Amino acid sequence: MTSGAQGSGGTETSGSGDIARTLELLWDTGRRPSRGPKPTLTLDRIVEAAVQVADAEGLEGLSMRRVAAELGTGTMSLYRYVPGKGELLDLMLDRVQRPSENPADLGDGGWRAALEALARATLALYRRHPWLLHVNQSRPILGPSALDGMEKVLTRIRPMGLSDPELVSAIIMIDGYVVGAARTQLYQLEAERRTGLTDAEFWQAQVPVLEKAMASGRYPVMASLSEDTFGPDFDHFEFGLQRILDGLEVLVERRRRSPEPAEDRAQNGS
Fold first, then answer.
1. What's the whole-model pTM score?
2. CA 181 → CA 50, 114, 125, 147, 236, distances in Å?
3. Closest alpha carbon to 105 in 153, 148, 144
4. Residue 187 to residue 65: CA distance in whole angstroms
5. What is the Cα–Cα distance from 29 to 36, expressed in whole angstroms?
6. What Cα–Cα distance (Å) separates residue 203 from each residue in 89, 199, 210, 216, 230?
């Protein structure tokens, strides 16, 4: 493992490798040998194999040796293409963030449809690659996939009429909401796997005690809640997403009716 790749709390950290070398690999700006035997591996194959290992075994199972085994080659062969695990992780992050080439995947409407589609696509991304939730991406290395995705979303939401920092903040807000929801779902699955109890079995085990607590009169509001309050049919993710978009819609309409000069918006923070 590259020094510094392991972050606090058992997470990995993006940008922990050689930043200059990682950028060369992401943007294909490094020098290539002009002669010699054709390489048996490619960087693309290595990154794809690393993603497959992480998907199946989590980041704790990811190592240069494990990826080499997946490819049926020696560990030292990988170092001809990528310096270490830190750089490899950044290549993996950019790979899985590759945006769809279908414009319809960002919705067929305006900015609201685009942000709504972005939220659902991001949630699906975390479900496909749960290990992403264990990577500290507060300082990402920006590769072509990340920038392509940002360009597509910004193009669709620019008609909101917000300032440039506010447009980026809207994307950050959606991502933060999705990360929280995805992490909760992941923790539920991990809890079920580790305890052997399904979600229904876990809560059923608490029913006798909870029924007595509700009958005690100590929690009158909770005791008055409908039977379906905590049922599985209510889509908490969708409810929260729509309320965020409703709030943005209020701001967009307010700006449309009373546009502020850019300098005033920056000063007022609104």
1. 0.86
2. 26, 19, 12, 24, 9
3. 153
4. 28
5. 20
6. 38, 6, 10, 20, 10
Query: Which tokens sit at 93?
Result: 């992050």
Structure tokens at 22: 């990682």
Residue 110, CA distances (Å) to 6, 114, 178 in order: 41, 6, 20
Across the chain, mean pLDDT equals 90
Distance CA 144, CA 175 (A): 19
3-class secondary structure for 42-93? Answer: CHHHHHHHHHHHHHHHCHHHCCHHHHHHHHCCCHHHHCCCCCCHHHHHHHHH
pLDDT(37) > 90: no
Give the integer Cα–Cα distance in Å for 114 and 107.
Answer: 5
25-39, 143-157, 172-186: range with lowest mean pLDDT: 25-39
* Tokens read off for 115: 């942000």
Dihedral pair phi/psi, residue 135, rounded to 5°:
-115, 125
What token pair was written down for 190? 């991990």
